[in-house]
Amino acid sequence: MNFKLESEAAMTQQDSATAQPARLCVLKFGSSVLRVESDYPATALEIYRHIRDGEKVVAVVSALGGETDALLNQGMRVGGDAPALLARLARVGELHSAALMALALTRIGVRACTMDPHEMGLMAEGAPLDSNLTGLDADAILAKLDHHEVVVVPGFTAGHDEYGVVTLGRGGTDLTAVFFAARLGAHRVRLIKDVDGVYTADPARNPLAERYAELSYGEAAKASAGLIQDKAIVAAEAQDVLIEVAAMGSAEATTVANVPARSALPLKGPKLRVALLGCGAVGAGVLDYLKGRPDLFEINPVLVRRPHLHEEHADFTDDLHRALGEAPDLVVELIGGADEAAEIMRSALRSGTHVVSANKAAIAKHYDALHACAEASGASLRYSAAVGGGTPVLEMLARLGGSAGIQAIEGVMNGTGNFLISRLSEGWSFDEAVAKAQELGFAEADPAADVDGHDVADKLSLLVREAFGVALPTDRIARQSLREVTTEQAQAALARGEVLKQVGRCWLDADGRVHAGVQIEGLSVDHPLAGARNEENRFLVRDAAGLERCLHGKGAGRWPTASAVFADIMDLQRGLLLKSAPAFEMGEAIPLLRTA
Ligand SMILES: NC(=O)c1ccc[n+]([C@@H]2O[C@H](COP(=O)([O-])OP(=O)(O)OC[C@H]3O[C@@H](n4cnc5c(N)ncnc54)[C@H](O)[C@@H]3O)[C@@H](O)[C@H]2O)c1
Ligand SMILES: N[C@@H](CCO)C(=O)O
């Protein structure tokens, strides 16, 4: 059987840049959320949420909490009061933070870079410690966004004709974010803080303080009392940039725009009780993320095979009934395997419990039964990580929907397989490479599923469902095993200017029939899939108009996969919260009285 598309050449030659440009979103993370080094992973998740929604992100970051003061104090101690030199020193905190943020994003498989002010043509005028932004080379940023999902920008600092570099005054990262939104045409900036909006008074000190849903720039300047930098509010009004003030992971925000003040209805729901089943490569990452939000989740004892191997025995169990507890709101299934896992998910869904899973084997095999149970009870079933790990390909298909008329999907969609081929071409033996993939947490419990193409076939079966709406069982998808690849073949391909790849492909033919297959192919080095390294996944999605979209990410491993699972959990949490307060969107226009 020939799996190649007739029009493959045309498909692969087309530049992904010809597809619809992604929406751009400017997010700002201040030192109220970047307090310590361990805050970077949670912040990376917040950015990932926007990428899943199909946006490109400019993430503007502050220094870690306390670092700017520490630098300024150090400067004063060592050399006294020389503003231009202090500005050079103080900005180091933001440069440091931007690099850490880009690294945290890379860990979960997001293509991120950071740029220094001189690389972005970011210029300011004024006093060295209190300058105002005047120029930006927007094309330089947009060019970076062609090949990255995120550009991380150090806030608070810019170049200066006289002083070389300067800072923008305390809270200056807000100003950087507003300026970038205006110059990049985003017209909206989301400032992520440790509060979920602007209140009539500091809610940490005054429990009677009320949150604004919306307020004008002038009101914001009065009410925010330093929460938003004053210069940033003035710049936003002048440049017609809408400001949102929001907490991490929140559905809510206070909007600052040219609108009258309006109060927000309280939006508080009970914590979700989570039953986590499995604490292996992926489950341990998800547990870490869940524990990071004790304000949102209560966790039942986690299901594992050998509780005594875990440090806190009491929090683990090998008893499924104990793990499920009385009535969890959500079951997170990460035990793997097709039938037992599917039975657990079916039973949960039947009783109205929401389910999040990464298990392509179970969902591909029991797709109809699982969805029928969810539909009957109204419970949600989410499985973003089942295809692509942290690469949000299912979300892309859902966004394109029926209207785009997807014609074909091809991809490198097994991290283990790609890792194996990469190692073989470096001269490793097959067994050494498999053992390493297992050690790194990429491989399935039985790595034969990765090696013989079964895992890719499960993923294709799910892609076919989501893209074409038809059933194509895994066992009807022909596949070629990686066992057929030798070190010599991998190296010979490289010598010919090709790379071997395990390619999964599904497509609609002219009669509307769906085909799919998995095969090992030599791709020329300039093929869009050829550059996928190690556990990376890449997908090419072509629609009826011939437009092609290329999606990159990490397809396997703890953090990319756990990030996708946790993003499903957070989407569900936000959805339930909004559902529990249907009046939220329609909060009344009530002028607020200051309570302090
Ligand atoms: N590892 C990845 O990179 C990755 C990526 C995407 C999707 N997935 C999917 O995520 C799921 C979990 O994968 P993983 O890599 O974490 O697997 P894993 O083997 O590392 O972890 C599974 C855990 O579940 C436990 N378990 C299995 N059956 C159990 C049972 N009956 N009772 C108690 N404990 C049980 C195992 O002991 C193990 O600790 C699988 O469905 C896999 O296909 C994994
Ligand atoms: N074993 C799978 C996990 C992600 O689905 C892989 O290597 O791609």
TrEMBL record:
Superkingdom of the organism of origin: Bacteria
Species: Sphingosinicella rhizophila
Domain Homoserine dehydrogenase catalytic, residue spans: 392-570
Listed PROSITE patterns: HOMOSER_DHGENASE
Keywords noted in UniProt: Amino-acid biosynthesis, Methionine biosynthesis, Oxidoreductase, Threonine biosynthesis
Domain Aspartate/glutamate/uridylate kinase: 24-233
Protein family (similarity comment): Belongs to the homoserine dehydrogenase family.
All residue ranges annotated as the Aspartate/homoserine dehydrogenase NAD-binding domain in the record: 278-383
Pathway per the UniProt entry: Amino-acid biosynthesis; L-methionine biosynthesis via de novo pathway; L-homoserine from L-aspartate: step 1/3; Amino-acid biosynthesis; L-threonine biosynthesis; L-threonine from L-aspartate: step 1/5; Amino-acid biosynthesis; L-threonine biosynthesis; L-threonine from L-aspartate: step 3/5; Amino-acid biosynthesis; L-methionine biosynthesis via de novo pathway; L-homoserine from L-aspartate: step 3/3
Name used for this protein in its record: Homoserine dehydrogenase
Record-level Gene Ontology MF annotations: homoserine dehydrogenase activity
InterPro entries named in the record: AceGlu_kinase-like_sf, Asp/Glu/Uridylate_kinase, Asp/hSer_DH_NAD-bd, HDH_cat, HDH_CS, NAD(P)-bd_dom_sf
EC id: 1.1.1.3
